[in-house]
Every structure is written in C-alpha cells, then in structure tokens.
C-alpha cells in the first residue's frame, strides 16, 4: 500500500499519518479520566493526568452524553463523600463547585463626574 503524497517543488513528500484512537482505547482513556475526576473533580487536573487538554474533555462531554452523565454523577458523589470530612463543608463546596455554591458578585461602576464633563465638552466641539 502506498502512502498519500503531495507534490512540492517537484518532489513527492509523504503526508503525515494521523493515528486515531480505537473505541476501546478511547473508552479506557475516558475511564481513567473519570477515576481521577471521582477523587478530585477538577477537569483541568484530570485532563492533564491522562495527557489531554481541557478542550478535548469539553468535546467528549458534548459528543458523549453517557460520559457527561458519568462526570456529573462522579462530582455529585464526591461532594457527598467529601463534605463530611472537612471542618467547613461550605468552604470546600464554594471552591470546588463554584457554579452551585460560589458567591456571585455583581460589579457596577459609573463614570466619574470629570469623565462626563470631558465627554460633554468633546461632544460639543465642531469639526
């Protein structure tokens, strides 16, 4: 079998071969990820543990509902198991499960009076 080639300046150069993981290999990787994630549900660390980037994990969650559901279950079980082991369960949950328990802060700021005056002044100038 010949390798795919591309023509470049009169020479034929083989194209890089991209190896795809088999379903069995991918399943094993996802299982390894979930095992880590079950003990510490921080996606970035679990992704690094299996040698993948967070974007890959995000893609897996979007494309594989079963995988996504397993992650949600693992995180919920971790919260239940771990919250009783620390002095302040609230502290732990606020940090690890920010989307549910983190403090939401709304920041509002206004323009200072001097900025308003400057804008009014420049708006009144004619070109």
Give a written overview of the molecule.
With 127 residues, this protein is mainly alpha-helical. It is built from seven helices and two strands. It has helices at 23-39, 43-49, 54-63, 65-83, 89-96, 98-101, 113-124; strands at residues 5-8, 11-14. Strands 1-2 form a two-stranded antiparallel sheet. A hairpin with a 2-residue loop joins strand 1 (5-8) and strand 2 (11-14). Helix 1 crosses helix 2 (43-49) and helix 1 (23-39) packs parallel to helix 4 (65-83). The radius of gyration is 26 Å and the shape is flat. The relative contact order is 0.07. The mean pLDDT is 80.
Structure characteristics:
two-stranded antiparallel ribbon; 7 helices; 6% strand; 127 residues; 2 strands; mainly alpha
In summary, what is this structure?
This protein is mainly α and 127 residues long. It has helices at 23-39, 43-49, 54-63, 65-83, 89-96, 98-101, 113-124; strands spanning 5-8, 11-14. The longest helix is centred in the middle third of the chain and has 19 residues, at 65-83.
Structural class: mainly alpha
Strand content: 5-15%
How many beta-strand segments? 2
Low-confidence residue ranges = none
By DSSP (H or I, 4+ residues per run), the number of helices equals 7
Shape: flat
Helix content: 55-70%
Order of helices and strands: EEHHHHHHH
Main sheet makeup: 2 strands, antiparallel
Radius of gyration: 26 Å
Topology record:
Layout: E1 5-8, E2 11-14, H1 23-39, H2 43-49, H3 54-63, H4 65-83, H5 89-96, H6 98-101, H7 113-124
Antiparallel strand pairs: 1-2
